[in-house]
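Predict the 3D structure for this chain.
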Amino acid sequence: MLRASFTVEPSHRLHLGQTFAPLQRGSFDPLFRSVKDVRGQAYWATAREGSTGLLVRFCRESGGGLKAPVSVTLWTDDAGPKASVNLESFARKVPAWLGEDDRWSAFYGSDAWGLLPQRLQTTRAQNPGLRLPAIGLLSQNLIQAITEQRVTGIEAMGGMRALVRQYGLPAPATGEPGQPAGMLIFPEPSVFTGIPSWTWHRAGYDRARSDAIVLYARAADSFERLASAGDVAPLVRALASLPGVGPWTIAETLQRFCGHPDAVSVGDYHLAHHVTYAFDGRRGDDARMVELLAPYRGHRQRVVSLIKAAGISEPRRAARLAPEDHRSF
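Done. Predicted structure below.
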């Protein structure tokens, strides 16, 4: 096993819990977990760098402020010749996970900031450590986003966990007392091309979502190379050419892949209602959401993150949407 530890000193205020909140899907997510140990709150994640599977831990000493250093530890069971190189390569990406590239100064200095409702300006003042993380992992984020299309969160999390448990790799056993049980390394994209139809069905996937994942997985290397060039626009055009990958899926992917400050999830089941309620005080649709967010172009996802941080949501009018199980059909 290889292990590396280092410290990151944020150049701005950083709240780990708020920044990492979009990364965890449920309390028992095998890919990202927040746990409390003897030193305070710790955040564990698995990742891939090249062919190397990794386990990562982020933590601050209990009582550390928003500018306190973040302790980072990496582990891998990979003993191949490229493992140490990949470990170093991933370590260089860690500051982006911590929102180091998410700079709000341009937003503060724009006319749009003055148009922002006072409640949201106050929310930012009260939550200065909220950042948009950029974790890379294009294939993992896209496949998870496709999984979440048109289904409840419970269905999406259950389906994804079923596949990751069957085809993923166990995270390194570190011997650390606070390591969460059951963490797994996301499968390589090529694995998804060989999953049989009955396994997709048992995991709760409809044909449209499984087909979209397989189509992407067959060309994943090309998309990863395009993503590594650093220009988002060509990547968006390429992803949009895939059947079954639309604006919502691309936005959800970019929010985590590169911390895109303007990628809004148009087409989301709930988001438009919450955004329009924040501005209008009443329920609205996607068209109205887009209209309301237009003055903030370039920072629209930042505005959405403030609405969520403020706890603004449309009052519930009916029971939650119940999951539908088609696996016995």
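Residues 272 and 289 are 5 Å apart (CA to CA).
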